[in-house]
Design brief:
Helix content is 75%, strand content 0%. With 438 residues, it is mainly α. The protein has one domain: Amino acid/polyamine transporter I, CATH 1.20.1740. The longest helix is centred in the last third of the chain and has 33 residues. It is globular, with a radius of gyration of 21 Å. The termini are far apart.
Amino acid sequence: MNSTYKIGFYTAISLVIANMIGTGVFTSLGFQLFDIHSVFSILVLWLLGGIISFCGALVYGELGVAIPRSGGEYVYLSKLMHPSVGFMSGWVSSTVGFAAPVALASMALGTYVHKIIPEINITVCALTVVAIITVVHSTNLKFGSSVQKVLTILKVLVILCFIVAGFIHTPGHETTLAPQPDTMKEIFSAGFWLSLMYVSYAYSGWNAASYLAGDMENPKKNLPKALLLGTLIVTIIYVLLNFVFLYSAPMSELTGVLEIGHVSAAHIFGETIGKMMSIIIAFLLLSSISAMIMAGPRIIKSMGEDLPMLSVLAKTNKYHVPYMAVITQSLITVLLILTAQFESVLTFVGFSLSIFTFMTVSSIFILRYRKIETSGYKTWGYPVTPLIFLALNGYTIYKVLEMKPTESLLGLLNVAIGGLVYFIGKRVSENKQINKLC
C-alpha cells in the first residue's frame, strides 16, 4: 500500500499554503514603509501580489493538467520551449530557489528560539531542524504528507487567531484605510514596484503543488483546485495580516523593523505575551521548511531522469521517495547556513525565479497553439489572465533590473551556469552513446 501512496488534495493545498506563508509576510512590511506611507497603498501592494499569483496559478493549472509530471517549470519549459530552457529553470530552483529560502527560514527559526532560550545556538538549531525534516521527507511519502498537513493546519489556525485578536484590539493610534493625497503617486513610484518584487517573493510557492504532480492522486482534478484555492486563501490571509500589523501598531514603530510580528503582538497582547510571538513564528516556520524540503527535490529528481550525467539524483527508495534529491537539496541548504551566504543569494533568487515563471506562463500560448489536450480544464479568462500576469510580472522584472543591476546580473550568471552544465551533460551523454555504438 505504501509503495503506491499518492498525495491527496488536502496535502497538495497544504503544500501551496505552507510554501507561500514563510518569513516574507512577517518581515518585509517594515522595509516597504520606507517608500510607502499609507495603509491603502500597502494593502494594494499585497492585493496586487495576490492577483499576479492567482493569474499565474490559473495558467499553471492548465499546464499541470496537460503535462502531469513532477517538476513544475522544469517540465513545462522542457516540453513546450526547449530542454535547455527547462534545465536552466530547474538549475536555479534546485541550486538556490529552494535551498536559500530553507536556509533563511531555518536561521530565522533558530533566531526566534534563541531569543526565548539564549542557551540554544542559532546555527545548531537551524541545522537540527533541517536534518530532522530531511529524514522525514526522504523516507516515507505518506508519513511526510501527514506531517505536512498537520503543520499547515496549525499554522493557518494560529494566524487566523492572530488576525481575529488584531481586529478585536483597540489601538492607541488612528488608522485610516482611505487613500491619501500622495497615494497614486506612491503606487506608481519606483519604490512601490521594487516592494512588489519582495511581495511577489513572499507569495512565491503558489506553484508548489505543480512540483509534485506526478506523485499526486488524480492530478488533472486536484492540481488546479489546490493551486487556485491555496493561492486565494493565502491572498486573503496576507491582506488581512498586513492590515492587522498596520492597525495594531503605529507606522513609526514598524518602519525598518524586521520583527513585525513581535511588534504587532506586543501591542495586541502586551509585552510579555508579545515575546512569545517569537516561539509562535518559529513554530509556523516549520511548516514552510517542511513544504520546501518536500517540493524542491522533485525538480532535482526530474532533472536526474532526463540527464544521464545526473542520474544518481533520480534514485528513489521502496516508497518512491527521491531520497537522493532530498538529501542533495538539504546539503546545499546546510552549506548556505554554514557559510551564511543565503541572504546575499536571496537578493538575486527572486529575480531569476521571476524570469522563469514569466516564461512558464507565456508557454500557455505555445500549449494552445499545439492544441495539447488538457482534459477539460482551461485557464479561466484566457488570454486576459495570462497577459495580466505577464504585464505585471514583466514590469516588476524590468524595474528590479533597473534598480538592482548587480543582483540581477548575478542571477543571470547563475542561469548561464545552468545552461553550461546542461550542454556539458548532453555532450557527455552523446559521447557515451557514440562509444557504445563503436
